[in-house]
Amino acid sequence: MVKYKCELALLIDNNATDNYAHKLAIIESQLAREVKVVTSGKDAIDYLRHENNPVPQIILFDVLIPIVEGQVFLHEFASLSHPHKNEMKIVILTYHEHDTHVEKLLVNQEITCVESKPLTMDSFDRLGAIMC
């Protein structure tokens, strides 16, 4: 029987190619049994606000997500009254680790870590370690 680090990952990215590759890799690496993919920060917040939706244990979001960008997403996330919010790990995905968008977001206490895109097996090893 396969042992996954968590049941559900929420992947927020508007890049279809990255989403396809990352979804497969998240499952293959056994980071999560399922991956819910949304393409905007607004869709992610709407998903998290809906109490009947399964709760993601890890949220991976591209720093440049459309409609509701990263800073607004984190502000909205912080205001959620979700009973399991403190159990969710938030990971920023970026092509440029030293991007000014990333640096602005790192002051937010909701962030667990930053990973460079595309995700690699080393990335999944680190992400698996934070889920323990």
Automatic annotation (TrEMBL):
<dbReference type="InterPro" id="IPR011006">
    <property type="entry name" value="CheY-like_superfamily"/>
</dbReference>
<dbReference type="Pfam" id="PF00072">
    <property type="entry name" value="Response_reg"/>
</dbReference>
<feature type="domain" description="Response regulatory">
    <location>
        <begin position="8"/>
        <end position="132"/>
    </location>
</feature>
<feature type="modified residue" description="4-aspartylphosphate">
    <location>
        <position position="62"/>
    </location>
</feature>
<protein>
    <submittedName>
        <fullName>Response regulator</fullName>
    </submittedName>
</protein>
<keyword id="KW-0597">Phosphoprotein</keyword>
<dbReference type="InterPro" id="IPR001789">
    <property type="entry name" value="Sig_transdc_resp-reg_receiver"/>
</dbReference>
